[in-house]
Design goal:
The chain is α/β, with parallel strands linked by helices and about 325 residues long. Helices cover about 60% and strands about 10% of the residues. It has eleven helices and nine strands. A four-stranded mixed beta sheet has the order 3-4-5-7, covered by helices on one side. Strand 1 and strand 2 form a beta hairpin. The longest helix has 24 residues. It is globular. The N and C termini lie far apart (about 70 Å).
Length: about 325
Amino acid sequence: MKKVIFIGVTLIVIIIFILFYVPVSYVRAGYGGTQPEKVRLAAMDRLEREPFVVYYYIDHKGIATEVIKVMEQVWQLVQKRLNVDLGQFRIAIVAPRGERPNWDGAIIEINGFETILMLLGWQVPIFPLWLPYPIASLEELGSSELFSLYWAMPHEAVEHSLVKKVYHDHKARWIGDGLAEYIAYMVSGALAVKVQRQALKSRQSEIQNLLMSEVNRNRYSMVQEFLYGAELKEGIEVAGYGVALAFWLQIAQRYGEGVIKEFWQRISQKRFPNAQEAARILSELTGEDIWTKLQNMDLQEVLQTLERAAAGSTRL
């Protein structure tokens, strides 16, 4: 009996060690035909300020400090506007340290075990901040690079906070990716208007590309075509991000952002709500038949919603 207990305790200690002390294997800098370089996180310095950890090389310490300040602004804004705690988040800064390398981006590569932990929401998400040229300050970056800070990272943080709660239902992507897109829109509008403008333009283009490739299409179903973890035709899946964003923009415009805040709070109180249960909650808050709306998104109306949002950002 004592031996069984000892083995059990040992396994628990090992699991805790893996969960909290073993970092992601590496960042792969360079893809799409270039020669990649593995950047091991264990070989990088760490700057920690709850709820953030930033991995960096010593000559990028100033940038790491700036990144944490930006992330604090983002997290505080989301907390203030929607009462959403985005939780812990890790960032790996990947930037040239000498001559400019022939890289075209960076991605995080993790092992299968870590992937499972992230999908279960048990592992703190990590995101690469790819800087394509040497800089001394974030102020030197253009909107394409700042997109990671002001759109992609808040998006991933929101989605990670929802992954355990709603993604057991593959039809719930309108909640996960949808709210993630709305919060990224909200953040960039408040802190980086150029990023918001660029992102809205991209979302419009993705929907227009779908309409060009499928000339008879005028509707989009977010519970049949924008599915989590499913094999989807790329053009259809990509267009779903813009459709989901437009959905939540329409909710905010018609009923106020407070409805989104209330929806989040009520969803948070449910253990594992499915997509249809979540739609019922939003129907109660708005008086609309949300489930029917999700299945019949008018793509021309979606484009008009995104165009009005883009015009609004231009005036800011």
